[in-house]
Amino acid sequence: MNPIGRSKRTSISALKTISVAVILVLLTTMPAQAQPANDNCTNASVVMISNGGFGLGIFTSATFDLTSATVQAGETFAPAILVGGQNQKSIWYKFSLPTTRSVRVTLAQPGSLITAGDAGFAVYKTNSCLPTGADISTKLTPIGVFGNTFHPCVESGDYLVQVSGKASANGPVYITVETGQPTAAYDLQAQAYYFGTIPRGLTTQPAYNVDCQSIDDAAEICTALNNYQDYNKSTWHVFKTPAYLDYLGVFVWGNPGKVGIRVYKGDVRGTSYSSLPQVGGCDSINADNSVPGSKIFGCTELDPNTTYSIQLFYNKNYQGQITLRLALGGFGPTIAPEPILSAITPTTNNLGVLPSSPAGITTGRNDFLACNSRHSTHPCNPSLPANGLTVGGIKLNLSTFFIFTLSGTSNININISNVNPAGSCGPPLYIRLYNQNVSNSCSSLDPVNIIGSFFNASSFSCLPPGDYTMQIMGQDTIIPSDYTCPMTNLGTIFDMNINVKSIVASNKYSLSAPGVFDTINNVSGVMQSLVPGITYTSKVDTFGCANTVMPLDDNCNAAYTKTMYREFIVPDSGIVSMWSTGSTNMNYKLFKGDANSFAVAQNTFSYPGTISGLTPYTLCLANTSGPPYVCDGVKVCVVPGTYTEAVFGNTNQIGHTNQFQVRFDTLNTKHYNLATAEDMGDILSMIPPTGGTVTSATDHYSCKDNAIVIDGFQPCSGGYGSPGTKAIYRQFYLSGPASITINSMAFGCDYSPLTLFKGKATDGLAALTVMPSPWRCFTSTSMNVCSALPAGWYTVVSYGWGPSY
Prior knowledge:
Elements (H helix, E strand, L loop, with lengths): L2 H5 L8 H14 L15 E2 L10 E4 L3 E2 L13 H5 L5 E9 L3 E8 L10 E6 L22 E8 L2 E9 L6 E9 L12 E5 L3 E4 L3 E3 L22 E8 L6 E7 L3 E9 L17 E5 L5 E5 L9 E8 L5 E10 L11 H4 L5 E4 L7 E9 L19 E3 L2 E3 L1 E9 L3 E9 L11 E5 L15 E6 L1 E7 L2 E9 L17 E11 L15 E2 L2 E2 L2 E2 L7 E3 L3 E2 L7 E2 L10 E9 L3 E9 L4 E6 L2 H8 L7 E2 L3 E2 L4 E2 L11 E5 L2 E9 L7 E9 L12 E5 L43 E9 L6 E3 L10 E5 L10 E2 L9 E3 L9 E9 L5
Parallel strand pairs: 1-4, 10-13, 20-24, 31-37, 36-40, 46-47
Antiparallel strand pairs: 2-9, 3-9, 4-8, 5-7, 5-9, 6-8, 11-19, 12-19, 13-18, 14-17, 14-19, 15-16, 15-18, 21-30, 22-23, 24-29, 25-28, 25-30, 26-27, 26-29, 32-33, 34-45, 35-45, 37-44, 38-43, 38-45, 39-41, 39-42, 39-44, 47-52, 48-51, 49-50, 49-52
């Protein structure tokens, strides 16, 4: 029997003192109600979320009694809690989110012991005790009553829940944490963006925001990333490859930051990623708004006609707009990746005999530098080294070949242009031209036969007829540049154009053998003397590729290596007028002497041989112009004999034509001195009183210089400052004072300057006095009616200039 129990059955009046003593004993021996286990922040009760925190649903905490809860030293409260006076006791809970979730936190009690408004809670985003006001969640707001706080996008992390109340808040409480899938673009596998079948070039997904994306479970984490646990947001994207591709580039634009990428073979919209094979494992790229991050899949990494899924991972703190672009390269396999005749001949890369013309005919083809053109696929030294060829720091390890034939000597221009629809991003293509055909053994193509190597375009002069092979090379290294296309030649389609101009091997009149020159005035195979007054025209000649024997002279320019030879015979002393015309301005000279006879005597008919014995009769001339810049052809004073006209050229004149004209005149000046001056007589007697015109006879300047100084007056100069060395003398008489006009008349040439002297020429030099201006070196001078020349004799002298014997 319990004695205490028994004492309570006695009367109160008899046992009052005893009962008080008993009660005191009870008060001193009964222990006080214990504080709850989660009274302190460091002992916060964990709300367990299933699946390692990835679970979805409602998760309930343990129940704890607030009655004996206390407040820790330094503990702070949210403003809403302070306003409600719910800061006199507290207990703590905590939960963790490994990824973004929608979250609802609810404060509840199993009964109704605590009056509404006596308890509330605040959620802190931290795992540090004690949290401060700065740690209060910006998404889950504090609540001063029983109830809940909710946000559709709560970031991953550790959370502390502070449940607090007034002193009167005595009773049990608990919380629930409800997690849900956040709403975000392309967050779930079933919501993946579908590109469809990727075309060649660039394909862009519409921009989307990264904020509330999540992952489904811990297995999705890309462990290749540093701090990979923080990359707990992802988006899904699905595409299908076309029937052919060489590479595919994934480009990510966005706020600067690292982004993880993983590619699965298969469609995650209908099949879980966990059952799909990965392609290349997890990797990371750097997103940027100016230079995108990229991941390139090259040859054989992706299969054609196959669906793939991309998962992009973002840091838990990453927010902003993302643009995803896919760049696909490849048109088809390379047509002729090996220099093997039996493989090239049935294809369009066998160009056959290229058409040509003097103006040029272009032949065009296109081909691809595809995965099958890699040297490593079919190495064959020496033209296809397995490790490629390094030129200018670029490793060239892709090749295709063309073969063609030139039917004659030709100038060719080769141009290779990239026609990728997304633009030309790769390095320039490298071309090697072999003067050799291929055979059925790839090793027969020998670089020793390369006649030219160049990037993109080049010209070749004077290629001989024969077979040629062209190797076009690029690099398969893929260097990301921008969204248009990666820096690579892989997947390139290019146009190849060859323009062929037919060129003569050598000009016809090259003196490459006896008699190989153009004869002027050839009658029945015999060169005849020039007939005075007749203009003769040579045959047209075209400079060819071959260099020729040259005259032993400075030949206008030391760089000249080709000569056209023409010969003619002058029967008497006189003037030769020459015209040289052609497609370009060519230099030429006139020599006295028979170049053919000298070449035969010296047995020299080829370059770099020279012909000696020729005497230069002119300076270096340029077509119809040249010193002394006279009209009606270049004038040369000649004596009887054989003359050679030589036209000079070099590689710049290959394919250019030239033609020569010559005229011989035996002209002499009739009125060549004072004694033989033309006497025009009394001109006033020849015209009516009202006035008229008297014209002298026509006379010619000759090769003889006959101008003299009269009354101290020097002969008038001609065009370009040429000294006046030739003169025609005429005299006339005025029977009375007269106002006259004197004009210089010329036929086919510049007007000759005139000077008027008073006196009669035939009376001798002493009889002449030079008239003042304007009667000196004029071509036309008139007197007005108020002035007149006095009566008397006058002499007018016409001045000329030019070559002499």
